[in-house]
Amino acid sequence: MTTQSNVDLADFVGTWALNNEKTAVNFRTRALWLFRAKGTLQATEGTAHVGSDGRFSCEIVIDPVSIDTKIKKRDDHLRSADFFDVANFPTITFKVSELRSALSGNVLVLGNLAIHGRSTPLTLLAQLGRAGESVSLSTQVVVTKEMLGMKKANLIKSWVTMSAHFDLVRS
To answer: CATH code at 135?
Structure first.
């Protein structure tokens, strides 16, 4: 979806591709309500397009198979049908529908998180940066396990804190 943005994107006109090496998706929660559990996921694909008319579109694809908590047994369980169910849902996507100006030079990122075959609207407060031919977007959000489609995940708290830093280069 491409929508008009109220953020001045004149310096960003063009097509941008995800730089996997400088992109990070991290999460943290508590297992058994006591033990901290944290890990990473890999964003494998991503493109953004900014038109000269200010229209903006962006899609990021995350690979749940890539989950890494540094504990293989836990990682395998997180890939199972109890959590990410990677056999049936091999990707997680976030499609940005709109950028809006926010306080202190930040932006509001409006989009939909698609996981487990369903789409959930999310609004994220993010920092947008530019260095030469590279653009970065950093954000943190608290999501519920229900939003992630993990109703069977009784051993983790009901919330998960996700932080992400996406780096895109002009393509």
So the answer is: 2.40.128.110
Total domains, the chain: 1
Domain assignment of residue 171, yes or no: no
CA distance 113 to 29: 19
132, part of any domain: yes
Kindly write down the DSSP assignment for every residue of 73-117, as one continuous string.
Answer: HHHHHHHSTTTT-TTT---EEEEEEEEEE-GGG-EEEEEEEEETT
Let me know if residue 81 belongs to a domain. yes
| Binned average pLDDT, 10 residues per bin, the chain of 171 residues | 64 93 90 77 95 90 96 92 90 92 89 90 92 91 75 61 94 91
Separation CA 96–CA 80 (nearest Å):
28
Task: Quote the pTM value.
Answer: 0.88
Pairing verdict, β 14-18 and 24-31: unpaired
User: What residue numbers bound the domain in which 100 lies?
Assistant: 3-166
